[in-house]
Write the structure tokens for this entry.
Amino acid sequence: MNIKEALNQQQIDAWKEEHGKIFKTSVGDDVVIWRKLRRKEYVTIMSQEATKEFEGDKIYARQDMIVATVALYPEDVETLIAENAGLATCVADEIILKSGFDLTNTEEL
């Protein structure tokens, strides 16, 4: 599915019906459409051991997993991640913020 097909209103409405809020993040010329990360998914990703490829660098493996878990477009987001060094970091940061890890408003009473 190309970006024009992915961004037609019918597809957007279908994604919203299935996932609730959806988001589009652009990094340069690349676009990732994604949904929020669910608590169970977050716990699973954070509790996984790093793969041999990322041994010692769990943060990078987790960023890749976060993006791959919630990406709706492109379908093969792993290729996009592999081809663009900073993409997973940028998109994962946005996912984390929109999934409830944003700053809260806490005050002393």
User: Anything to note?
Assistant: The chain is about 55% helix and 15% strand. Residues 10 and 58 are 38 Å apart (CA to CA). The first helix runs from residue 3 to 6.
